[in-house]
């Protein structure tokens, strides 16, 4: 349970991220100054830097919050999830992939990812930070889930990291082709495609 101090700190961090998200979406990364972000968030620059050492840290944390935190975050709680049967695993994967696809195909998330991609040539550290914080974290969580299902005899995966990349990559191709390369008109991934992906995937791991 959070202490009152921790709750205040979390609320302040949420306040900063919300302001930063609006500024990044409106102005991009390079034109978004810390003065702009602090003003939009309603905090001082001193407070901003008390929570985030750089704009890079802040942008990546905005993206991390979307994917990792909150009741609708598709990776929330995955590290503690126990699955006891193939059907249960199938249901878990469908639910989680629906959440991932919903986020990755949202106009706001795609706009933020385009910002990251545009800035990486000038700021390679931003790419490293994003990769380690979000996609690699997601792959690790799915890999660990598959290791647990292997141990329980639900799956027979020889390389859980490769299998996790296959799973995440199946959604990433839709995000790339129908999202990032389709500006202004991202096409949501239909539920039947999610089920088809999971059904095909289950045949390779069980």
Automatic annotation (TrEMBL):
Q: Name one GO molecular function term.
A: transcription cis-regulatory region binding
- DNA-binding residues (ranges): 33-52
What's in the keyword line of the UniProt record? DNA-binding, Transcription, Transcription regulation
Q: What domain of life is recorded for the organism?
A: Bacteria
Question: What InterPro entries does the record tag this protein with?
Answer: Homeodomain-like_sf, HTH-type_TetR-like_transc_reg, HTH_TetR, Tet_transcr_reg_TetR-rel_C_sf, TetR_C_Proteobacteria
Any one biological process term the GO annotation gives: negative regulation of DNA-templated transcription
Query: Which positions fall inside the HTH tetR-type domain?
Result: 10-70
Q: What name appears for this protein in its UniProt entry?
A: HTH tetR-type domain-containing protein
**From what organism does this protein derive?**
Rubrobacter xylanophilus
